[in-house]
Amino acid sequence: MSKTFDVAVFHGDGIGPEIMAPTLELLSGMSSSYDFAWTDCPAGAASYLDCGSDLPETSLNAARRADAILLSALGDPAVRFADGTEMTPQIDIRIALDLYAGVRPVRVVPGMRTPLKIPEGKIIDFVLVRESTEGLFHTQGKGHVTDDMAEETLRLTRKTTQKVCEFTFDLAMARHAGGLPGRVTSVDKANVFRAFAFWRDIFDGVAKGYPDLKADHAYVDAMALYMVQNPWDWDVMVTENMFGDILSDLGAGLMGGLGMAPSADIGEHHAVFQPCHGSAPDIAGAGIANPFAMILSAGMMLDWLGRRNDMPAMVADAHRLQTAVDACLAAGETTADLGGALDTMGAARAVMDRL
Ligand code: ATP
Fold first, then answer.
1. Ligand 1 center from residue 289 Cα (angstroms)
2. pTM value?
Protein backbone atom coordinates (compact mmCIF):
# COMPACT_ATOMS: atom_id res chain seq x y z
CA MET A 1 0.00 0.00 0.00
CA SER A 2 1.27 3.45 -0.89
CA LYS A 3 2.22 5.74 2.01
CA THR A 4 1.22 9.40 1.73
CA PHE A 5 3.42 12.13 3.19
CA ASP A 6 1.99 15.56 4.03
CA VAL A 7 4.35 18.21 2.74
CA ALA A 8 4.02 21.93 3.46
CA VAL A 9 4.95 23.81 0.29
CA PHE A 10 6.20 27.39 0.35
CA HIS A 11 6.15 28.45 -3.30
CA GLY A 12 7.78 31.77 -2.43
CA ASP A 13 8.60 34.84 -4.47
CA GLY A 14 10.31 35.68 -7.77
CA ILE A 15 11.51 32.48 -9.43
CA GLY A 16 10.28 30.49 -6.40
CA PRO A 17 6.99 29.26 -7.91
CA GLU A 18 8.69 28.60 -11.28
CA ILE A 19 11.17 26.09 -9.81
CA MET A 20 8.73 24.62 -7.30
CA ALA A 21 6.07 23.59 -9.84
CA PRO A 22 8.24 21.13 -11.85
CA THR A 23 9.81 19.85 -8.62
CA LEU A 24 6.38 18.85 -7.28
CA GLU A 25 5.54 17.23 -10.61
CA LEU A 26 8.77 15.25 -10.48
CA LEU A 27 8.21 14.13 -6.88
CA SER A 28 4.63 13.05 -7.63
CA GLY A 29 5.83 10.69 -10.33
CA MET A 30 8.77 9.30 -8.41
CA SER A 31 7.35 6.05 -7.05
CA SER A 32 4.21 3.98 -6.62
CA SER A 33 5.13 3.03 -3.04
CA TYR A 34 4.72 6.55 -1.67
CA ASP A 35 2.86 9.70 -2.53
CA PHE A 36 2.59 13.28 -1.35
CA ALA A 37 -0.25 15.54 -0.24
CA TRP A 38 0.83 19.15 -0.78
CA THR A 39 -0.35 22.00 1.45
CA ASP A 40 0.26 25.45 -0.04
CA CYS A 41 1.73 27.86 2.49
CA PRO A 42 1.86 31.57 1.62
CA ALA A 43 4.94 33.39 2.96
CA GLY A 44 7.49 35.96 1.88
CA ALA A 45 7.11 39.26 0.05
CA ALA A 46 3.93 38.44 -1.88
CA SER A 47 2.26 37.24 1.31
CA TYR A 48 3.36 40.41 3.14
CA LEU A 49 1.81 42.59 0.45
CA ASP A 50 -1.29 40.44 0.42
CA CYS A 51 -2.06 40.08 4.13
CA GLY A 52 0.54 42.10 6.04
CA SER A 53 2.54 39.08 7.24
CA ASP A 54 5.62 37.48 5.66
CA LEU A 55 4.97 34.32 7.68
CA PRO A 56 1.26 33.93 8.50
CA GLU A 57 0.46 31.81 11.54
CA THR A 58 -1.62 29.47 9.35
CA SER A 59 1.44 28.72 7.20
CA LEU A 60 3.67 28.13 10.21
CA ASN A 61 1.07 25.82 11.75
CA ALA A 62 0.75 23.87 8.50
CA ALA A 63 4.54 23.48 8.51
CA ARG A 64 4.39 22.22 12.10
CA ARG A 65 1.80 19.59 11.18
CA ALA A 66 3.54 18.42 8.00
CA ASP A 67 5.86 15.42 7.60
CA ALA A 68 8.32 17.66 5.76
CA ILE A 69 8.58 21.21 4.43
CA LEU A 70 9.61 22.25 0.93
CA LEU A 71 10.57 25.86 0.65
CA SER A 72 11.43 27.72 -2.49
CA ALA A 73 13.11 31.14 -2.69
CA LEU A 74 11.42 33.70 -0.41
CA GLY A 75 11.65 37.50 -0.29
CA ASP A 76 12.09 40.36 -2.67
CA PRO A 77 14.63 43.15 -2.13
CA ALA A 78 12.01 45.64 -3.40
CA VAL A 79 9.58 44.75 -0.60
CA ARG A 80 10.87 45.70 2.84
CA PHE A 81 9.67 46.31 6.36
CA ALA A 82 9.13 49.92 7.44
CA ASP A 83 12.65 50.02 9.01
CA GLY A 84 14.21 49.12 5.65
CA THR A 85 15.20 45.53 6.52
CA GLU A 86 14.35 42.62 4.23
CA MET A 87 12.01 39.89 5.37
CA THR A 88 13.60 36.54 6.17
CA PRO A 89 10.77 34.13 6.98
CA GLN A 90 13.10 31.19 6.27
CA ILE A 91 15.17 32.21 9.32
CA ASP A 92 12.01 32.65 11.43
CA ILE A 93 10.92 29.11 10.47
CA ARG A 94 14.32 27.71 11.55
CA ILE A 95 13.94 29.32 14.97
CA ALA A 96 10.24 28.46 15.38
CA LEU A 97 10.78 24.77 14.52
CA ASP A 98 14.22 24.49 16.16
CA LEU A 99 15.98 23.46 12.95
CA TYR A 100 19.49 23.54 14.36
CA ALA A 101 21.33 21.53 11.70
CA GLY A 102 21.80 23.36 8.40
CA VAL A 103 23.06 20.75 5.96
CA ARG A 104 24.94 22.17 2.96
CA PRO A 105 26.38 19.48 0.67
CA VAL A 106 29.16 20.48 -1.71
CA ARG A 107 29.62 18.06 -4.62
CA VAL A 108 31.38 19.09 -7.78
CA VAL A 109 30.52 16.98 -10.82
CA PRO A 110 31.25 17.36 -14.55
CA GLY A 111 29.14 20.07 -16.15
CA MET A 112 29.24 22.42 -13.17
CA ARG A 113 30.97 25.74 -13.71
CA THR A 114 33.51 25.28 -10.94
CA PRO A 115 36.26 27.90 -10.89
CA LEU A 116 38.73 25.24 -9.72
CA LYS A 117 41.04 23.05 -11.75
CA ILE A 118 40.50 19.68 -10.12
CA PRO A 119 43.49 17.31 -10.28
CA GLU A 120 42.94 13.88 -11.88
CA GLY A 121 41.48 11.42 -9.39
CA LYS A 122 40.34 14.03 -6.85
CA ILE A 123 36.67 14.25 -5.93
CA ILE A 124 35.00 17.16 -4.17
CA ASP A 125 32.24 15.73 -2.02
CA PHE A 126 31.87 17.17 1.46
CA VAL A 127 29.06 18.39 3.69
CA LEU A 128 29.08 21.49 5.80
CA VAL A 129 26.74 21.42 8.79
CA ARG A 130 25.90 24.91 9.98
CA GLU A 131 24.32 25.34 13.42
CA SER A 132 21.31 27.40 12.39
CA THR A 133 19.54 28.74 15.48
CA GLU A 134 22.08 30.55 17.65
CA GLY A 135 25.73 31.67 17.37
CA LEU A 136 26.16 35.21 16.07
CA PHE A 137 22.54 35.22 14.91
CA HIS A 138 21.44 35.19 18.55
CA THR A 139 20.68 38.92 18.59
CA GLN A 140 19.59 39.12 14.95
CA GLY A 141 17.38 42.20 14.59
CA LYS A 142 17.89 43.07 18.28
CA GLY A 143 21.49 44.30 18.23
CA HIS A 144 22.31 47.25 20.47
CA VAL A 145 23.21 50.29 18.41
CA THR A 146 23.98 53.83 19.61
CA ASP A 147 25.58 56.74 17.77
CA ASP A 148 29.02 55.56 18.86
CA MET A 149 28.90 51.80 18.86
CA ALA A 150 27.06 48.70 17.72
CA GLU A 151 26.93 45.43 19.61
CA GLU A 152 25.69 41.91 18.81
CA THR A 153 25.98 38.83 21.00
CA LEU A 154 27.23 35.40 20.01
CA ARG A 155 25.59 32.69 22.07
CA LEU A 156 26.34 28.96 22.04
CA THR A 157 24.37 26.68 24.34
CA ARG A 158 25.59 23.30 25.49
CA LYS A 159 22.31 21.66 24.48
CA THR A 160 22.28 22.88 20.88
CA THR A 161 26.02 22.49 20.34
CA GLN A 162 25.78 18.92 21.60
CA LYS A 163 22.80 18.21 19.32
CA VAL A 164 24.40 19.66 16.20
CA CYS A 165 27.65 17.79 16.85
CA GLU A 166 25.77 14.51 17.36
CA PHE A 167 23.80 15.16 14.17
CA THR A 168 27.05 15.73 12.28
CA PHE A 169 28.72 12.56 13.58
CA ASP A 170 25.59 10.55 12.71
CA LEU A 171 25.68 12.01 9.21
CA ALA A 172 29.37 11.11 8.87
CA MET A 173 28.56 7.55 10.03
CA ALA A 174 25.87 7.23 7.36
CA ARG A 175 28.27 8.51 4.69
CA HIS A 176 31.01 6.22 6.03
CA ALA A 177 28.66 3.24 5.61
CA GLY A 178 28.38 4.29 1.97
CA GLY A 179 32.17 4.20 1.52
CA LEU A 180 33.21 7.77 2.37
CA PRO A 181 36.18 8.46 4.68
CA GLY A 182 34.36 9.00 8.00
CA ARG A 183 36.04 12.22 9.07
CA VAL A 184 34.43 15.04 11.05
CA THR A 185 36.06 18.45 11.41
CA SER A 186 35.06 21.13 13.90
CA VAL A 187 35.45 24.51 12.22
CA ASP A 188 35.84 27.15 14.91
CA LYS A 189 38.02 29.91 16.31
CA ALA A 190 38.99 28.26 19.57
CA ASN A 191 42.38 29.97 19.58
CA VAL A 192 40.81 33.39 20.13
CA PHE A 193 37.33 33.05 21.65
CA ARG A 194 36.37 31.25 24.86
CA ALA A 195 32.99 30.49 23.33
CA PHE A 196 34.70 28.37 20.69
CA ALA A 197 36.87 26.59 23.24
CA PHE A 198 33.52 25.68 24.87
CA TRP A 199 32.24 24.50 21.44
CA ARG A 200 35.37 22.44 20.80
CA ASP A 201 35.18 20.81 24.19
CA ILE A 202 31.64 19.64 23.47
CA PHE A 203 32.66 18.48 19.98
CA ASP A 204 35.52 16.42 21.47
CA GLY A 205 33.14 14.89 24.01
CA VAL A 206 30.71 13.83 21.28
CA ALA A 207 33.59 12.47 19.15
CA LYS A 208 34.42 9.94 21.90
CA GLY A 209 31.11 8.21 21.17
CA TYR A 210 32.12 7.59 17.54
CA PRO A 211 35.38 5.61 17.66
CA ASP A 212 35.00 4.53 14.02
CA LEU A 213 35.24 8.12 12.81
CA LYS A 214 38.24 10.42 12.68
CA ALA A 215 37.60 13.73 14.44
CA ASP A 216 39.76 16.84 14.08
CA HIS A 217 39.63 20.66 14.17
CA ALA A 218 40.38 23.58 11.86
CA TYR A 219 40.23 27.33 12.41
CA VAL A 220 37.60 28.99 10.28
CA ASP A 221 40.03 31.33 8.51
CA ALA A 222 42.25 28.38 7.59
CA MET A 223 39.20 26.44 6.40
CA ALA A 224 38.32 29.24 3.95
CA LEU A 225 41.77 28.70 2.46
CA TYR A 226 41.56 24.88 2.48
CA MET A 227 38.15 24.89 0.78
CA VAL A 228 39.82 26.59 -2.19
CA GLN A 229 43.23 24.88 -2.02
CA ASN A 230 42.35 21.28 -1.19
CA PRO A 231 38.54 20.90 -1.03
CA TRP A 232 38.81 17.19 -1.94
CA ASP A 233 40.37 16.44 1.48
CA TRP A 234 37.24 17.08 3.58
CA ASP A 235 34.31 14.88 4.47
CA VAL A 236 31.92 16.42 7.02
CA MET A 237 32.38 19.68 8.92
CA VAL A 238 30.36 21.33 11.67
CA THR A 239 30.43 25.01 12.50
CA GLU A 240 28.73 27.99 14.13
CA ASN A 241 25.87 29.83 12.42
CA MET A 242 27.68 32.87 10.95
CA PHE A 243 30.81 30.91 10.00
CA GLY A 244 28.53 28.38 8.31
CA ASP A 245 26.61 31.11 6.52
CA ILE A 246 29.82 32.40 4.97
CA LEU A 247 31.49 29.06 4.25
CA SER A 248 28.37 27.63 2.64
CA ASP A 249 28.43 30.40 0.03
CA LEU A 250 32.09 29.59 -0.57
CA GLY A 251 31.02 25.97 -1.03
CA ALA A 252 28.34 27.07 -3.50
CA GLY A 253 31.04 29.01 -5.35
CA LEU A 254 33.00 25.77 -5.77
CA MET A 255 29.94 24.35 -7.54
CA GLY A 256 29.78 27.33 -9.86
CA GLY A 257 27.27 29.41 -7.91
CA LEU A 258 24.12 29.33 -5.87
CA GLY A 259 22.06 27.88 -8.74
CA MET A 260 23.46 24.40 -7.97
CA ALA A 261 23.45 24.50 -4.16
CA PRO A 262 20.75 22.52 -2.30
CA SER A 263 20.20 22.63 1.46
CA ALA A 264 18.29 21.17 4.36
CA ASP A 265 17.58 22.64 7.79
CA ILE A 266 16.89 19.78 10.13
CA GLY A 267 15.70 19.50 13.72
CA GLU A 268 14.47 16.62 15.83
CA HIS A 269 10.86 16.80 14.63
CA HIS A 270 10.84 18.93 11.48
CA ALA A 271 12.94 19.64 8.42
CA VAL A 272 12.93 22.26 5.68
CA PHE A 273 14.41 21.61 2.23
CA GLN A 274 15.31 24.67 0.21
CA PRO A 275 17.70 25.82 -2.55
CA CYS A 276 20.45 28.16 -1.31
CA HIS A 277 19.77 30.85 -3.89
CA GLY A 278 17.40 33.80 -3.53
CA SER A 279 14.30 34.71 -5.50
CA ALA A 280 16.34 36.19 -8.39
CA PRO A 281 13.90 39.02 -9.22
CA ASP A 282 16.07 39.95 -12.23
CA ILE A 283 14.98 36.80 -14.11
CA ALA A 284 11.60 36.14 -12.47
CA GLY A 285 8.82 35.46 -14.94
CA ALA A 286 11.21 34.65 -17.79
CA GLY A 287 10.97 30.88 -17.28
CA ILE A 288 14.75 30.47 -17.42
CA ALA A 289 15.61 29.82 -13.75
CA ASN A 290 17.76 26.79 -13.03
CA PRO A 291 15.58 24.28 -11.15
CA PHE A 292 18.42 21.91 -10.13
CA ALA A 293 19.12 23.31 -6.64
CA MET A 294 15.39 23.02 -5.84
CA ILE A 295 15.24 19.50 -7.30
CA LEU A 296 18.35 18.41 -5.37
CA SER A 297 16.85 19.85 -2.18
CA ALA A 298 13.74 17.74 -2.86
CA GLY A 299 16.13 14.77 -3.20
CA MET A 300 17.47 15.55 0.27
CA MET A 301 13.87 15.46 1.49
CA LEU A 302 13.42 11.97 0.02
CA ASP A 303 16.59 10.81 1.77
CA TRP A 304 15.49 12.30 5.12
CA LEU A 305 11.93 10.94 4.93
CA GLY A 306 13.17 7.55 3.74
CA ARG A 307 15.62 7.15 6.64
CA ARG A 308 13.10 8.42 9.19
CA ASN A 309 10.39 6.05 8.01
CA ASP A 310 12.62 3.07 7.36
CA MET A 311 11.91 3.12 3.63
CA PRO A 312 15.19 2.17 1.91
CA ALA A 313 13.58 2.44 -1.54
CA MET A 314 12.90 6.10 -0.87
CA VAL A 315 16.53 6.65 0.15
CA ALA A 316 17.56 4.89 -3.06
CA ASP A 317 15.25 7.24 -5.01
CA ALA A 318 17.08 10.21 -3.52
CA HIS A 319 20.29 8.77 -4.91
CA ARG A 320 18.61 8.08 -8.26
CA LEU A 321 17.46 11.68 -8.44
CA GLN A 322 20.96 12.97 -7.77
CA THR A 323 22.38 10.65 -10.44
CA ALA A 324 19.80 11.91 -12.95
CA VAL A 325 20.75 15.55 -12.26
CA ASP A 326 24.45 14.64 -12.57
CA ALA A 327 23.75 13.01 -15.94
CA CYS A 328 21.91 16.12 -17.20
CA LEU A 329 24.81 18.30 -16.11
CA ALA A 330 27.33 16.06 -17.85
CA ALA A 331 25.25 16.07 -21.04
CA GLY A 332 24.80 19.86 -21.00
CA GLU A 333 21.03 19.52 -20.55
CA THR A 334 20.88 22.65 -18.46
CA THR A 335 19.59 26.20 -18.23
CA ALA A 336 21.54 29.19 -19.58
CA ASP A 337 23.29 30.00 -16.27
CA LEU A 338 25.16 26.71 -16.73
CA GLY A 339 25.73 27.24 -20.44
CA GLY A 340 22.78 25.14 -21.65
CA ALA A 341 19.88 26.03 -23.92
CA LEU A 342 16.95 24.71 -21.87
CA ASP A 343 14.35 26.69 -20.01
CA THR A 344 13.22 25.81 -16.46
CA MET A 345 10.61 23.27 -17.57
CA GLY A 346 12.99 21.80 -20.16
CA ALA A 347 15.75 21.23 -17.61
CA ALA A 348 13.29 19.68 -15.14
CA ARG A 349 11.87 17.44 -17.91
CA ALA A 350 15.41 16.32 -18.79
CA VAL A 351 15.78 15.08 -15.20
CA MET A 352 12.34 13.36 -15.32
CA ASP A 353 13.25 11.65 -18.61
CA ARG A 354 16.40 10.24 -17.08
CA LEU A 355 14.45 8.93 -14.10
P1 ATP B 1 19.04 36.51 -1.34
O2 ATP B 1 19.57 37.74 -0.69
O3 ATP B 1 17.54 36.43 -1.36
O4 ATP B 1 19.70 35.24 -0.93
P5 ATP B 1 20.74 37.17 -3.52
O6 ATP B 1 20.78 38.65 -3.47
O7 ATP B 1 21.89 36.40 -3.00
O8 ATP B 1 19.39 36.66 -2.87
P9 ATP B 1 19.78 35.70 -5.75
O10 ATP B 1 18.34 35.99 -5.78
O11 ATP B 1 20.18 34.36 -5.29
O12 ATP B 1 20.52 36.84 -4.99
O13 ATP B 1 20.40 35.98 -7.19
C14 ATP B 1 21.78 36.26 -7.41
C15 ATP B 1 22.06 36.10 -8.90
O16 ATP B 1 22.03 34.73 -9.23
C17 ATP B 1 21.04 36.80 -9.79
O18 ATP B 1 21.65 37.34 -10.93
C19 ATP B 1 20.11 35.68 -10.17
O20 ATP B 1 19.50 35.87 -11.42
C21 ATP B 1 21.03 34.45 -10.19
N22 ATP B 1 20.30 33.24 -9.80
C23 ATP B 1 19.91 32.90 -8.55
N24 ATP B 1 19.25 31.75 -8.56
C25 ATP B 1 19.21 31.34 -9.84
C26 ATP B 1 18.65 30.20 -10.49
N27 ATP B 1 18.00 29.24 -9.83
N28 ATP B 1 18.79 30.11 -11.83
C29 ATP B 1 19.45 31.04 -12.53
N30 ATP B 1 20.00 32.14 -11.96
C31 ATP B 1 19.89 32.28 -10.63
1. 9
2. 0.95
